[in-house]
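Workshop exercise sheet. Pairs work together: one partner reads the sequence aloud, the other fills in the structure field after running the prediction. Swap roles for the next sheet.
Pair: D.N. / O.F.
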Amino acid sequence: MNCKYIYKSIFTLLFPAVILLLNGCNDAAWESHVGNDEFVKKNLYQAIGEKPELSIYYNVLKKTGYNEILETSNSYTVFAPANSAWSGVDTSSVDNLTKLIGMTIAYKTYFTDNTELYTEVKAVNDKNIFYDATDKTFNGAKLIDPDYRTSNGVLHVTDKIVERKENIWSFISTLTESSQYKYIKSLNETVMDEDKSVAVGVYPDGRTKYDTIWKNINNFLSAFPIDNEDSIYTYVMVENTGFDMLYTKYKPYFKMSSDLSTDSLTRFNICGDFVFNGLIDITKVDTLENVSGVKVPLAGVTISRTYDASNGRVYVINQSNIRLKDKIKPIKIEGEDFINAYDKNYVFTRYKRWASGERDIALSCGETQSDSLWRKVPLAPDTVVKKDSVASKTYFINSNLVANVANFYIEYTANVNSTNYDVYYVAYDDISDHFDSTYTSYGVYKVVQKLFVSMPGAKKLVRGTTDNGAEVVNNYLGNMICFAGEGYAGVHELTKLKKWSLIQDTQILDTPLTTADADVMSVAQSGTMTMWLCNAARSTTASRQGLLFLDYILLVPRITEE
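Structure field:
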């Protein structure tokens, strides 16, 4: 039986499924050529040369040198435009033709029964070709005579030339009056390409002399690669009035050490807030979460322009009034994610099912509490239970490994905005020996811990070299005030930290502040803040410097806007 007849018979059985796959396409030409073996022993360039309706395409391939690709043993899919598709196209410019032809050849083999064909495929010029299910086109070109098998791929005849799309960045570069474009472009920086530059000698001062190759870098495009053909994004441009509205709204929360830095950071955040993963139709959503997790409202926006790019889509809208509460969000720092410690050997990361991320940390240490611990006992000669106090009690977390260090610190960092924060933590002491709910023994251990903070742009926290009694300096509140949290062992709760005064030299906690801002952490400059969680010893006795527990720290910005 003839092979061509066999393939036609198989296709006849599969045709209903193919129809569904192509969203109802009933083009009879597709049925008659699926699995066509007419050119199975010829390469793609040879097959194109034997089809008269592709004579212009055949000649253009030769003119641009792309014929050599189609004569190799690699596997390709060719979207070959029929002669009628070339009407009005200038075929005299080789550069122009090269750009066009690069879109008509895709890597790998895609027959029309391959579902991957109807998402996006990668052309040999690294640009993407997208299928439009509504128009049943590939970047505007429709298959009119598809599925010719060749020795190195498949040939599809199209009614038009597959349109070459610019990537998102190339397209928005045409919007030269846009505030977004102007800012992103301003970040272009020319630097030496160390990998390609060649060392050619040495200067008299010992520096290496290079035959320098330069390259352009852009911090925004590095963070949000909307110029990358390998990633698919949806990018929204807001008109300048909408940009200015967000600028005024954002600026107080992105203060830096200079007006110029504040301006740049504010603009960077606005531009970054309109990057979304994937190809999205924003007309079908009210709110969309960007790549940074910020909710961007899109209901009722006016779209003045849409562009389908080679790596996604661009919308130009009037404005989007992003809520500050969605932009400036609470910051959660997990206890186990500490950056450093006075001595990491004493810091235990514990597996706890109740903990955030199922992990918390504890400092191996001991403490003598000199404050009164209340217990319930019968006082002779009475038999009635009454409250009595115990002056002190020594607590341990591990008697074989005890840190003998005052102001033992565990270091954390957080990227913060220039605003006021409420500070919380969960510090759960779940060691049963540390709490007695009946108060018949020693009572309950009081979990008291200090938090020192150095602000962005300021000197970082440092500690003296003396184990017992060394001060922490560079705290933004000075050496005599810090934040502290109070709780009790056996109680799992979110604890709010407040400012306390400290005893000079030892920095032992003295008394809580009662001022209006006693529970506020004011951040004057955006950037990386450093925090030290420190033990709150009640004495300077060796080996009695205070336990530490931490599930997580939570910084909650005080944002009043609804």
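Discussion prompt: The domain at 168-327 is CATH 2.30.180 (FAS1 domain). What would you look at next?
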